[in-house]
Design goal:
This protein has helices at 3-23, 28-37, 43-48, 50-67, 73-97, 99-123, 140-157, 162-172, 177-201, 207-229, 233-258. By secondary structure, it is mostly helical.
Length: 259
């Protein structure tokens, strides 16, 4: 890689780290489209390369949330344990589907989640911090269902699974958004490992790009986690939704232009 490409990889990693720590999503929202559109890598390399980069960023962010009591470790471990097998299946499915299909599916899912989070934030009224009370902690089958969805998503789209975990924990299982983000980060860190191995075996990981990304991810993730833990839940929800919509449009337009 040229020096300019290394510096660009570092910058992409720093931005993705901030987003990982802030929103619990693994940072693939930036790295996948950026590797594809800015670095010119093949589509499946853009899917596979972010996965090993997700691990250090997610761990850094998770530790920041853990110190503030915003991580459900039991839920994270359950989701990751079940999702790991699904992540390998998702990686194999991405190879069968082809790069263009995976990129457009990524954009479509991001737009859907953005619309869902916006509608959820709008319905929250004037007391967005209030969360539906549950009679007890989530059951293992509930967490396993989240793990299967997140694992398939992580392996197929290379985005870490946080796009699935955060909305499901907050909307379906009644977590506060900050706790959902912290729990997601720990689960994402574990989920990314089997997906990384599978994509590397399939030849979808560019180690030189990954190395540049990692250098920027860790400090970015620490900064993003600090930002979100002091922000209001309303601000986090709207920022999350707007971020998703913009990145989805960027990815979809770029990929359609290549067809």
């Amino acid at each position: 890689m040229s020096l300019s490409a290394v510096l660009l990889s570092f910058a992409i990693g720093a931005v993705s780290g901030v987003l990982s720590g802030a929103f619990g999503i693994g940072g693939g929202i930036v790295t996948t489209p950026a590797i594809r559109l800015l670095l010119g890598a093949p589509a499946l390399v853009a899917v596979g390369t972010p996965l090993p980069v997700i691990v250090p960023g997610a761990v850094t962010g998770a530790l920041a949330y853990l110190r503030r009591g915003l991580v459900d470790v039991r839920a994270s471990v359950t989701i990751a344990a079940v999702g790991s097998l699904a992540a390998v299946a998702g990686a194999a499915a991405s190879a069968a589907a082809g790069g263009a299909i995976v990129m457009l599916a990524t954009a479509a899912l991001m737009l859907y989640v953005a619309a869902d989070v916006l509608s959820w934030a709008a319905r929250s009224g004037t007391a967005p911090e209030r969360v539906r009370e549950r009679p007890g902690p989530p059951s293992v089958p509930e967490l396993a269902a989240v793990g299967v969805a997140a694992g398939l998503y992580s392996g197929f789209l290379g985005l870490g699974g946080g796009f699935v975990i955060v909305p499901l924990l907050a909307r379906w299982l009644g977590y506060g958004l900050k706790r959902a983000i912290g729990t997601s980060l720990l689960a994402v860190a574990m989920l990314a490992i089997p997906g990384s191995v599978a994509h590397y075996a399939l030849g979808h990981v560019d180690l030189s790009i990954a190395a540049g990304l990692v250098l920027g991810v860790v400090p970015g993730a620490a900064a993003g986690a600090r930002l979100t833990t002091v922000a209001s839940e309303t601000a986090v929800r709207y920022a999350f939704a707007i971020l998703l919509a913009c990145a989805a449009a960027w990815l979809a337009v770029g990929e359609l232009a290549r067809l």
